[in-house]
Design a protein that fits this description.
The complex is a heterodimer.
Chain A lengths: L13 H5 L1 H14 L24 E3 L14 H5 L5 E7 L12 E9 L8 H5 L5 E3 L14 E2 L1 H8 L8 H10 L5
Antiparallel strand pairs in A: 1-4, 2-3, 3-5
Chain B lengths: L1 H5 L3 H37 L11 H4 L4 H8 L3 H11 L10 H17 L7 E4 L5 E4 L7 H9 L2 H11 L3 H32 L11 H7 L6 H4 L1 H14 L24 H26 L17 H26 L7 H34 L1
Antiparallel strand pairs in B: 1-2
Helix pairs in contact in B: 2-5, 2-13, 2-14, 5-13, 6-8, 6-13, 8-9, 9-12, 9-15, 12-13, 12-15, 13-14
Classes of the chains: A alpha+beta, B mainly alpha.
């Protein structure tokens, strides 16, 4: 057990009892603070530094070949706690040679930014690494409809992210080599 | 000047006085408005922030260099603040006593603006070698008038607290009246040694005249140096009278929501706000006049400016510089010291300042008597 030592308080001297020297010290501190650098960030002109792994607005991304990655499996729609995501699945046409091994793509993909809570579950759950919460954090609009991000808006926000796996290319290569699933 | 005034019709004198009065009101209200800005700006700087720097007027703001500079200083902010109060919805709670509720802000503002009638702020040199003090009304008992009228300001606060019919304003009103009574005494007592010091034996002119007090500090000691204790007590009491932190008992927003103006909004609150700052401006001016030599240069030095209109302007400018410095001091203290507890305020007023002021008075009675006797 720690030993408690009770310190004797020294009685205040006369100058201490008037508080005036202490007030003077305080005044000195505040005055010198006036000339120190300010911490204010002038927001619209200066933007804050966004850290890695920041969860901003959810976006859809394309792979480096410019192909749509989402296969509309609807896992994100299912996992989304506030039900902000709504996907209308669609077929990928047979003649699309770029995406030979993909059967489905979203016909429409909506994320309601009035509902979104930026939890990042959609990004976590996505098997195709197609949805990412990126660095953009500020979205505004004049109506509710404006704040429902449609597919084209989502791709515009998302852009292209480097892909480590090139899953479809691997799949195509495997099929050509004769061991497709 | 006096002959010139006597040659005028009564209505002409009246017209001139009214124009002067309006100019004075304009000056004091502008200073009050800009001390609000100064308050925000200085507090921001002391807390490592930048303060208001966004408001801008269309034409002036687009001038290169000057426009952005003024915008950065927040020069246009008081205008926006004032307009905001004007355009806000006028809300009157159902439980208030209507007459007194509307009367209170007016009663708070009027004393603040009335005291400035006897406030000298410079001197005018006529060609004949006379000097005429610049003020609206040269009262022989100027300081008594100021003490009497400025303490009426508390009625506005008490009325506001009472008529709001709600507990926090009520508590604010009570605290305000108690504080006013406690500090008025010390304030009055701290000024008595000044009059003893200024008045010479056998002189006809009243030492209660503010002009006389200022002129007694010309080429001599400032009264701050002669009577530091009086100055200290007066300054502390001034903080209490103007309801500034660390004595802002009537407002104390941490424990009383908004204090006496909790139930007030829009322009009625704006008037209280302006009245508070007008009090600070007037209070700083009074302290400058009594203790800092008014428009005279530095202690023991004669005024370095010539005795003509240039000297008048420089003198007024010097007076304003001192006043603004004191306003800064008010703000500086506010952002340095925490608020006293209510009982600590009472304790300080009654058991510290009052005895100190009495002892100070006795000391100077003895000293002045001794000096006068040895001079005879």
């Amino acid at each position: 057990m720690a030993k408690t030592v009770v310190l004797e308080r020294k009685p205040l001297s006369l100058s201490e009892r008037t508080y005036l020297p202490q007030i003077a010290t305080g005044l000195k501190t505040t005055f010198s603070n006036m000339f120190k650098p300010k911490v204010t960030l002038q927001y619209p002109e200066e933007k804050p530094v966004i850290p890695q792994n920041y969860r901003g607005i959810p976006t859809l991304v394309k792979d480096p070949n410019g192909r749509e990655k989402c296969v509309s499996c609807q896992l994100c729609e299912f996992v989304c706690p506030p039900k902000a995501i709504r996907i209308t699945p669609g077929e990928v046409p047979e003649e699309d040679l770029d995406r030979e091994h993909v059967e489905k793509a979203p016909q429409e993909f909506e994320i309601n930014m009035l509902r979104c809570i930026y939890c990042g579950y959609c990004q976590e759950v996505c098997p195709e690494e197609a949805i990412f919460l990126q660095q953009e954090y500020s979205s505004s609009g004049y109506s509710r409809e404006e704040l429902i991000n449609k597919k084209d808006k989502l791709y515009e926000l998302g852009g292209v992210l480097p892909d480590k796996h090139y899953k479809w290319d691997k799949k195509k290569k495997a099929e050509l080599e004769g061991n497709s699933h | 000047m006096i002959e010139f005034m006597q040659s005028l019709e009564i209505w002409q004198i009246l017209a001139i006085k009214i124009v002067f009065a309006l100019m004075m009101i304009g000056a004091v209200m502008t200073m009050a408005g800009y001390s609000v800005l100064a308050e925000r700006k200085v507090s921001a700087l002391m807390q490592g922030r930048l303060g208001p720097n966004r408001t801008v007027l269309p034409i002036i703001g687009s001038v290169p260099i000057i426009g952005p500079f003024l915008q950065g200083l927040g020069i246009f902010q008081p205008l926006a603040d004032g307009l905001k109060f004007l355009f806000k919805e006028e809300i009157v709670p159902g439980h208030v006593n209507k007459i007194y509720y509307y009367l209170a802000p007016i009663i708070a503002l009027v004393p603040a603006l009335t005291t400035m009638t006897v406030l000298p702020f410079g001197e005018f040199f006529t060609g004949a070698g006379e000097t005429i003090p610049l003020m609206l009304a040269d009262l022989d008992v100027g300081i008594l008038f100021i003490l009497a009228v400025s303490s009426l300001g508390v009625y506005g606060i008490v009325l506001a607290g009472w008529s709001s019919n709600s507990k926090y304003p009520f508590l604010g009103g009570i605290r305000s009246s108690a504080q006013m009574i406690s500090y008025e005494l010390a304030m009055g007592l701290s000024l008595l040694p000044i009059f003893l010091w200024v008045s010479k034996p056998g002189v006809e002119v009243s030492a209660l005249s503010l002009v006389e007090i200022v002129n007694s500090q010309h080429q001599a000691n400032w009264l701050l140096l002669v009577q530091p204790v009086s100055a200290l007590i007066f300054l502390i009491a001034l903080f209490a009278e103007t309801n500034r932190l660390p004595f802002d008992m009537p407002e104390s927003e941490t424990d009383l929501v908004g204090g006496f103006h909790t139930e007030y909004g829009s322009f009625k609150f704006g008037i209280f706000f302006v009245a508070e700052y007008a009090h600070i401006v007037i209070g700083s001016a009074i302290f400058t006049i009594i203790f800092l030599g008014g428009w005279h240069f530095l202690p023991w030095m004669s005024d370095p400016w010539p005795a003509n209109w240039v000297g008048t302007i420089l003198g007024v400018g010097w007076f304003l510089t001192k006043t603004v410095g004191l306003i800064f001091f008010f703000i500086w203290i506010r952002w340095t010291l925490p608020r006293f507890r209510y009982d600590q305020v009472m304790d300080l007023g009654w058991t510290k300042l009052l005895p100190l002021a009495l002892a100070n008075l006795l000391f100077y009675i003895v000293l002045v008597t001794w000096l006068d006797q040895s001079a005879l």
